[in-house]
Prior knowledge:
Elements: E1 5-13, E2 20-25, E3 28-32, H1 41-54, E4 61-65, E5 71-77, H2 81-91
Parallel strand pairs: 1-3
Antiparallel strand pairs: 1-5, 2-3, 4-5
Amino acid sequence: xxxxxxxxxxxxxxxxxxxxxxxxxxxxxxxxxxxxxxxxxxxxxxxxxxxxxxxxxxxxxxxxxxxxxxxxxxxxxxxxxxxxxxxxxxxxxxxxxxxxxxx
Length: 103
């Protein structure tokens, strides 16, 4: 039986103040990395961040589209789509920009 394979769409912001999975951006996940988009550094940082957030080895991830663009597709081996969605949702940063308006 072949291992599960899932593709994840990303919208990447390189050169951020800190690396984080921000949350949903349309049908993609918005990701910020501190690395500059030079010589593949930001792509490597994205894959490391995803591997950590998804609790998988780095070699379970492969960038299949968007090597030089902000919109990327990453293929993940070993996890199904539902589990990937749950893990990314739990790893995404809480909404820090909003203030609680309760009295």
